[in-house]
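Sync notes, pocket subgroup
Present: LS, DG
LS reminded everyone that the earlier model was apo-only. Rerun requested with zinc ion included. Inputs:
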Amino acid sequence: MADCIFCKIINGEAPAKKVYEDEYCVAFHDISPQMPVHIVVAAKRHVASILEFKEEDKEFVGGIQLAIANIARELGITENGFRVINNCGKDALQTVPHLHYHILAGGKMGAKIV
Ligand code: 5GP
Ligand code: ZN
């Protein structure tokens, strides 16, 4: 999508500190980190949110989940733990309408709300 910042990062048209890439996703450091480790894992397909996935996308969805685990291992954050977040829609304060997950780590986080 032409004016989507994450599409631009995925296509190499905008800069980002990439840490991982496979056929399903690209992961890079968040420009405004909320924790010492804050990685954005963006789907390599422009969909606004998980709501757009269909039955036939199961492999793609699962591929991203496995990638998140691999990224966590590569970053060395599995021992102390990490948080994976997907903001979906306006009440969740999603700001970039291109499906992505946040990986947060590197310190004790606030209380869970779910
Ligand atoms: P959301 O609020 O949609 O769940 O998360 C979007 C995230 O993308 C935010 O944490 C924001 O800091 C990050 N972000 C927005 N624009 C850029 C950018 O151009 N580069 C990088 N690396 N991160 C971005
Ligand atoms: Zn996009």
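DG: The chain has a mean pLDDT of 97.
LS: Strands lie at 18-21, 25-29, 37-43, 82-85, 100-105.
Action: DG to write up.
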